[in-house]
Amino acid sequence: MFRTCLILAACLFAANVPAANRIVLPEHPSADQRKDIEHRLNDWPDLGRYAKDNAALAPPKPGEKRVVFMGDSITDFWGRSVGTFFPGRPYVNRGISGQTTPQMLIRFRADVIALKPAVVVILAGTNDIAGNTGPETLAAIEDNLASMTDLARAHGIRVAIASLMPVNDDVVKDQTVQRPPETIRALNAWIKAYAAREHLVFVDYYTAMVDERGQLKKELSDDGLHPNAAGYEVMSPLAQSAIDKAFGGDPR
């Protein structure tokens, strides 16, 4: 059954993806690879990742300023693998490493809306640019970000939407090939304009983390993509300032 599902998935994927962007599946996958492939086939948006945590999370207390952070590995690692994640504050991390905006959109109800936050901070798009779940256009990424925003606002949740971080090639080769700086800048320009047009709070990580080359400052990352402790120290006050601003405004 596994082999049949794997073949069908591979054929369907290959039929719609240009050769340069196709994921090559191993002919004889290891146990870990089989587990990962089965998981992706059975739970593509990874709804199971936080299912138990969400069920165990009590509703916000009266006056509690709950905030949910929605994102990919940059959010996922925040306070778990690197740095600290707003100690003492009722903030909930719902990042999942490697995810793209269509995956986040599918799990947005379970991992954001159902938790009844007052504010959601959205940081997403870098893995779409890298083609983690297949090639994406900027228009498709923008539509997914707008849809998450619409869902949040329909439930009275204020939205803070963040610019993507820059990347660099200083340690890991081809980071800027997978995530071209000009594409990051183009998406960030749209996010900034969209936030202004829709009266959202814009969290500008990019400007604080970019160097004179137009790449991620060396001292803020150990791999050219993910923040290190110093990187999260730059991001934390920017996120907190945006959250404070969001609480001062109307979500609609």
From TrEMBL:
Keywords per UniProt: Signal
Domain SGNH hydrolase-type esterase as annotated: residue spans: 69-234
Listed GO MF terms: phosphatidylcholine lysophospholipase activity
Cited Pfam families: Lipase_GDSL_2
Superkingdom: Bacteria
Cited SUPFAM superfamilies: SGNH hydrolase (SSF52266)
Signal sequence extent: 1-19
Record-linked InterPro entries: Ester_Hydrolysis_Enzymes, SGNH_hydro, SGNH_hydro_sf
Protein name, UniProt field: Capsular biosynthesis protein
Organism the protein comes from: Luteibacter yeojuensis
